[in-house]
Task: structure prediction
Amino acid sequence: MMLLDYECKTTFWEDFTIAEYFGERAIRDTYKQAKREWRYDKVYGTELSMVLNHKCWFWYEKHDVNLSRLYAELWEEYHNWVLENWRGEELVYYLRTTD
Result:
């Protein structure tokens, strides 16, 4: 994320990296917990989306189709949830930051 000149505010990248050692179920559990706790926080919620997206591309470049697809699925689910549930300042922040 530093390549994007974005300073991380959470440990989401590290949390998902740890979950990867335990497999798909752990990744899904980490996602569910992060979403449940931070879904209405515009900064942390936006960073969750960014980490899911970056993990998808990270694993795509490493030729791990299964992990890349899993993160793509989670990102798409979360992204759609944000578009359906956030309004005003929160949605503007999300769209500007992730664009």
Remarks:
- The chain has a mean pLDDT of 94.
- Residues 65-85 form the longest helix (21 residues).
